[in-house]
Design a protein that fits this description.
heterodimer; A: Rossmann fold; 2 domains; 6-stranded mixed sheet; 17 helices; 33% helix; B: mainly alpha; two-stranded antiparallel sheet; 13 helices; 4 strands; 5% strand; globular
Chain lengths: 500, 355
């Protein structure tokens, strides 16, 4: 085996309340396309950000061509030949393709004719069809991605990291990307390809490393030697972090949440939810399994009223709320635990009290003023009832740990006695105690007659908690499973579309 | 390889802002001394005059207070807009249109008793300012037009409106043909409270305190804090970002317009295009130096007022107006630079590419 292009060894990276990487390792040989697989939250992106100089790992070593390196910025990583194409593109929309490609590494005297020619030549070498003089805002997402790749190639990146590159591509564009990647590795470069989609991994990649819970569970396995079922099992795992106990058995009653033929277009203009229907009954937990990025977020946002619906309907507690505002939905009995707790569910810069009363402050008004006595009493009560550990209610929310943040958020949402709870990734990134506490709260809420729709990428959690598991893929429900009968492998294969 | 970087301090220095302000002042005084030496002006006499004319006597202190009033109110207006990340740089126009609205009321009811007329005129001024900023707020909320551009352009509209009124409809018949607007009713003058300081000083303090109190106690203020700090969270909580943008711009305009009303009844005798006197722009600096906090606006406005009053006074010593302006700018630079250093620190870091 020749010298590895990239060697990551024992990488640790901690964020407040979350351990993203726990001793992860990765070895990439030059001339190969190397897949990094794992569920969302497995630490793939964090590991890649450590390699690309975005984060400095807390512990562990990075070696490039056998040389140990320490990057303090993406520029350092680029200088060492590591280029990364992020999920969100970092392009200047009003600049042309060529201007974006050379941005940051342009000579001090700009000869745009020469640069345009050079960029066009580079594009042609890799079989790109790119007009260097077109402004980026006119390009499709697939074309923009090519500009990002050209940016890395212009800087002569020998290792190119692509973070879920096919998420924004049409199937045809994905095939074209595959051809470009092959061309790159034939020149002796290495490509790290982060993906969830097994068909692409088997089509484009030579080797795969699988991450789970921040650590590497399988290193550099040759794609040719494994089948998709084995990879699925490696990704999904066979043991849960939390000990969930016996499966939940609910007593389903009336339909409280009815989603009928819902279609949602996301902000990128792609169909995120595609004529999807589902029902959740009183006293029932319905789990949605699926690899991230298959429309789960748009589904929950559309139910909560944060995203507009193209067609179809959402009915909560018998009331059609398809076109009503968020407040009306909450009044109809909806509680929503969004996936992005700090960005959507909470206001981290404000004190605990401000966050605790976010759903109920309208009942605490005295004329135009807010009764802070009642607000403080309410949050004190919430903190005690749901066991949130805080210093003082006036402390900024950001001082709380991840588990306590989620307890506060869940407590706030449940305190209004909702009839429907939509919980997106409610236990992701929490420690064992936090996971157990959140799961118990959801189950006891359900047993009181609430309909619970739970989105999770942790299959074990869904198997333990849900009465029914629906598998979501490309905006549709592609399978329904009874967690007491279905095997993990069956559900896992439906999740990654192994038999789609 | 080593390089200098500006790194955010983990804990902003306690009491850093006033200390930083002092450092900035010392820096500016040294720089100014150099400048005065070069221009051949007496350094100590100049500084002494600046101090004397801003804080030297009760008479000058009270004049400094008066000038601080519009600065503080505009500073408050700008910081209100900033709670939603908006830039109201049209306070100049809002002052002018607020004063125009107040003049309109004064012309409509010239015989009302003083206190009632003053209240009516001040309310009209606030309403006028709110109206002037409402359009930009609406355009920003509905179709995303930059409020920076619209508020700035409306400054010119308000200015031209006054020039138009000056020469036509509201032209003073006793002005000997001079294009000026008829003086406001005499009884609409704000009374003196101490030496030259007029009632506007207390009113401005009350407005600032009332806003701070309302912001911290009201439902509206609570919603505004969420909307300003986490827009997505506000939407999630069912708070309309659209309405908050429009409301905040209108309130910001109202406060600036109110400043116009205070100027009309406090320092001026008639509406003119000079009534805004650059306060609309100086107030932006005041807000920035006060870190967009209402509590800081009053103090910074007073210091800024002293700087302006003192800077103007040295011209009578023979210091050229250019030197006086550069000196004011130096002091501002010092203060702003020091303010940056109270939240950031300069660090020498070593970067390793390969080891």
């Amino acid at each position: 085996m020749n010298q590895a292009a990239v060697e990551l060894d024992g990488i640790w990276k901690r964020f407040p309340g979350v351990i993203a990487n726990a001793g992860a390792s990765l070895t990439v040989r030059p001339g190969t396309v190397h897949a990094v697989l794992g569920e969302n939250g497995a630490g793939k992106t964090t590991l890649m950000n450590c390699l690309a100089g975005v984060y400095l790992p807390d512990d562990g070593t990075i070696r490039i061509d056998g040389q140990e390196v320490r990057f303090s910025s993406p520029a350092d990583a680029l200088a060492a030949g590591i280029g990364m194409v992020h999920q969100e593109f970092r392009l200047v929309p009003t600049f042309t393709v060529a201007e974006n490609v050379v941005l940051g590494s342009a000579p001090s005297i700009l000869d745009m004719t020469a640069i345009n020619g050079a960029v066009a030549a580079l594009a042609e070498r890799f079989g790109f069809d790119a007009d260097p003089e077109r402004p980026v805002w006119q390009l499709s997402m697939g074309e923009r991605q090519r500009v990002e790749i050209l940016k890395a190639l212009w800087r002569d990146a020998r290792v190119l990291i692509l973070d879920e590159p096919t998420a924004v591509l049409t199937p045809q564009e994905a095939v074209e990307l595959g051809a470009v990647l092959r061309q790159m590795v034939e020149e002796g470069r290495a490509v790290v390809f982060i993906s969830h989609k097994l068909d692409e991994v088997t089509a484009f990649c030579d080797e795969a490393t699988v991450l789970r819970g921040g650590s590497t569970v399988a290193s550099s396995i040759a794609i040719a030697d494994v089948d998709s079922g084995q990879l699925a099992e490696l990704m999904v795992g066979s043991s849960s972090v939390a000990n969930p106990g016996p499966p939940h058995v609910g007593v389903p009653g009336d339909v409280l949440l009815d989603v009928c033929k819902l279609t949602v277009t996301d902000s990128r203009g792609l169909t995120a939810v595609d004529s999807l229907s589902l029902e959740v009954r009183s006293g029932e937990i319905v789990g949605i399994a699926g690899v991230a990025g298959n429309g789960q977020r748009s589904l929950t946002d559309a139910i909560a009223g944060l995203e507009t619906v193209d067609s179809g309907s959402v009915t909560i507690n018998g009331i059609d709320v398809t076109t009503t505002g968020i407040r009306e939905r909450v009044n109809s009995g909806l509680a929503y635990i969004p996936e992005d707790r700090l960005g959507v569910g909470l206001a981290p810069k404000l004190p605990v009290t401000h966050n605790a009363v976010m759903r109920s402050y309208r009942t605490m008004r005295q004329g135009p003023m807010l009764s802070w006595d009642r607000a403080k009493a309410f949050s004190q009560n919430l903190i005690e009832r749901f066991g949130v550990k805080v210093g003082r209610v006036d402390d900024p929310l950001a001082s709380l740990s991840g588990g306590n943040l989620q307890r506060l958020l869940l407590g706030r949402e449940l305190s209004g006695n909702p009839s429907v709870v939509v919980a997106a990734q409610p236990t992701r990134g929490l420690d064992v105690a936090g996971v157990g506490a959140i799961q118990n709260l959801l189950v006891s809420q359900c047993d009181e007659g609430t309909a619970v729709l739970m989105i999770s990428e942790d299959l074990d959690e869904l198997i333990a908690l849900a009465d029914r598991i629906l598998v979501m893929s490309r905006g549709r429900i592609v399978g329904q499973f009874d967690p007491r009968q279905a095997s993990r492998a069956e559900i896992g294969e439906a999740m990654i579309g192994a038999h789609s | 390889m080593k390089r200098l970087v500006l790194a955010r301090r983990e804990h902003p220095t306690r009491g850093g802002q006033p200390v930083a302000f002092l450092f900035g002042l010392v820096f500016a005084l040294i720089g100014g001394a150099l400048l005065l030496t070069i221009s051949g002006d007496p350094v100590f006499d100049t500084y002494e005059r600046m101090w004397d004319r801003s804080f030297g006597s009760f008479d000058t202190i009270s004049a400094t207070f008066n000038r601080a009033v519009p600065l503080a109110l505009v500073g408050l207006a700008v910081s209100i807009a900033a709670t939603m990340g908006l830039w109201n740089i049209g306070a100049e126009g809002q002052i002018l249109f607020g004063a125009t609205a107040a003049t309109f009321v004064g012309r409509l009811f010239p015989d009302l008793p003083g206190p009632i007329l003053i209240i009516a005129m001040l309310l009209a001024a606030a309403l006028g300012g709110a109206l002037w900023a409402f359009g930009p707020g609406l355009a920003r909320a509905e179709i995303g037009v930059s409020e920076i551009i619209t508020t700035l352009m409306l400054n010119e509209v308000a200015l031209r409106l006054i020039i138009y009124l000056q020469t036509t409809k509201w032209k003073d018949p006793d002005g000997f043909g001079f294009p000026q607007i008829t003086a406001r009713p005499e009884q609409a003058k704000l009374g003196a409270i101490w030496e030259r300081a007029h009632l506007g000083v207390l009113i401005a303090l009350a407005v600032i305190a009332a806003f701070a109190w309302f912001m911290n106690r009201s439902v509206w203020g609570y919603e505004l804090k969420i909307a300003g700090s986490s827009p997505k969270t506000a939407t999630y909580a069912g708070i309309s970002m659209r309405r908050k943008v429009i409301g905040v711009m209108a309130l910001s305009g109202a406060v600036a317009g109110f400043a116009g009303g205070i100027e009309l009844s406090g320092s001026a005798v008639r509406l003119s295009e000079n009534i805004s006197n650059g306060f609309g722009f100086a107030g932006i600096i005041v807000a920035a130096l006060a870190l967009m906090r209402p509590s800081g606006v009053a103090v910074v406005a007073l210091a800024f007022s002293a700087l302006q009053v003192g800077g103007l006074s040295i011209q009578t010593l023979g210091v050229s107006s250019a030197v006086s302006t550069i000196l004011q700018a130096l002091i501002l630079f010092g203060a702003i630079g020091a303010a940056v250093l109270s939240t950031y620190q300069i660090r020498l870091i070593e970067r390793k590419v390969t080891a």
